[in-house]
Amino acid sequence: MREEEEANWFARWEEQLPSPEELMPLSQTLITPDLALAFDIPTVRSNPNPNPSLHHHHPAPSLHPPPPPPSSQPPPDFDSPDHLTTASSGGGAGGGGAGEEPARTLKRPRLVWTPQLHKRFVDAVAHLGIKNAVPKTIMQLMSVDGLTRENVASHLQKYRLYLKRMQGLSSSGGGAGGGAGGPISAADAATDQLFASSSVPHHFLGRGPGPEPYMPFVPVAALQHHQQITAAMQQQHQQQQYYQQRHMGHFGSPTGGGEGYDHGFLARTMPQPGMHRMVGPVAVGLVPPPPPSAPSAASYVEDLESGSRRGGGERRMLTLFPTGED
DNA sequence: GATCCAATAT
DNA sequence: CATATTGGAT
């Protein structure tokens, strides 16, 4: 019964995990020093990112915004491509960038909730239970560096609306896609793309207060590290995407086949075949405080997927959703 | 004071 | 439309 369901859930979960190959392909290569410096993330989220023994490539974009002490220069981050409009800073400039003052007055670019991020979000909420799923907690569980409570709060707000909407809708189609392929698939309005694509934990709907159903435990793998996701990572891509979206209708995706865009970055590490792919919560030194009646497992952790799936024909935004649900 | 939440602004 | 920001309430 319920256990079975959960078991399935788990199974599916694993299936969704990205394969080692998809793991960290690009990523930091695009991070510009500017960007790195630009991120002045005040939050005290830990990010001891031990950085896996990556190849020569530099440590992950752990854009740890170390409070730039006055006497500090941008780390010699190897040469990186410029661009990435971080803003217009200065005026002009162009060229080079120049002013290096870390500008505390920098504003971070809008966070873009990619399916990957959203998934983390949903999983976190699911594991926390509606009760404990408040921005702060969610944020902590997500362990995404750079993510702020406000970011989560905002998204949560929308997410709740989505759930609510879904509650009232059970089978009648209102109009949108008309077809109901399932209880919730009806919602394919452009609005829900993100949400619709992600699996909504059943207990969410129609569920009020009450003890949480308990999610499957997650053995806290004391495994090594997995790359910590940083909002910055997302942001990089986000920026590009956002930019392109705004300025170009679609991406230059070769119709028909040319993929040409698979960022499967944001990966999780630990390809150990045959072993469960659970990773420990990144924040090893900062495990979220056990909420009053928190779900047993403090670390649920989950995966990230590569967002490259264009089925052939669909002209949705690029990082639409991959999860090939059943 | 912190944080949640809903509303509102960009 | 998706996020950010603000304001009121807890």
From TrEMBL:
Molecular functions (GO terms): DNA binding; DNA-binding transcription factor activity
SUPFAM superfamilies: Homeodomain-like
Domain of life: Eukaryota
PROSITE patterns assigned to the protein according to its UniProt record, in alphabetical order: HTH_MYB
Entry protein name: Transcription factor MYBC1-like
Composition bias, Basic and acidic residues: 306-317
Species this protein is from: Elaeis guineensis var. tenera
Gene Ontology cellular-component annotations: nucleus
Extent of Gly residues compositional bias: 89-99
Domain HTH myb-type: 113-164
Primary subcellular site in the record, as a coarse category: nucleus
Keywords: DNA-binding, Nucleus, Transcription, Transcription regulation
Pro residues: compositionally biased ranges: 62-78
Record gene name: LOC105057832
Annotated region (Disordered), positions in chain: 1-20, 42-103, 289-326
Compartments in which it is found: Nucleus
Any Pfam family hit: Myb_DNA-binding
